[in-house]
């Protein structure tokens, strides 16, 4: 509901000024800025932790987050905000990255927590969550997509650069939805820990994928996918 025509009540169109007034109102609703979305997968974490609070970053994971933070800082962009999953591994990754981006505000959200977004097609044998998990997680992750991945507000004057630190399943689903690919194919992609995925959303709503799961800034011995 960000297409300009969807924001106008056509029934209220002035009969005298007609198309001229409509064009003016449409122009007022059109986005002017481009949004740059950087989706960061959390770093390597302790898989043996039973509860989320125990699934902290490993020493290698902390190194990965440092490398990701340096990479983002080296881009020379004025980042507007860092929105991150409330899960421990994403929060810790954010804290390390933010050291390299001083002054950028951080926002935690449950919407970006890891989960099972939609049953994958083709199915895989090594991962079979209960069907109810797709209904619970899927609705939340779809809500995250609709809430965060959209064209700029018409009031936004300048291009924005936003970082989202979350999880592989969430990022893969968001990429499929943003590019209008069948979301059931999300599991066909693989993302390294600490990787950077860059989406661009133009004022007309068109989306481009600049990078997917980039870890070219990491030494080969620091790259993991756990």
From TrEMBL:
Subcellular location: Mitochondrion outer membrane
InterPro entries (UniProt xref): His_Pase_superF_clade-1, His_PPase_superfam, Mito_Ser/Thr_phosphatase
Catalytic reactions on record: O-phospho-L-seryl-[protein] + H2O = L-seryl-[protein] + phosphate; O-phospho-L-threonyl-[protein] + H2O = L-threonyl-[protein] + phosphate
Gene Ontology molecular functions: protein serine/threonine phosphatase activity
GO cellular component, one term: mitochondrial outer membrane
EC numbers, comma separated: 3.1.3.16
Keywords, alphabetical: Hydrolase, Membrane, Mitochondrion, Mitochondrion outer membrane, Necrosis
SMART domains xref list: PGAM
GO biological process: positive regulation of mitochondrial fission; programmed cell death
Family: Belongs to the phosphoglycerate mutase family. BPG-dependent PGAM subfamily.
Protein name: Serine/threonine-protein phosphatase PGAM5, mitochondrial
Name of encoding gene: Pgam5
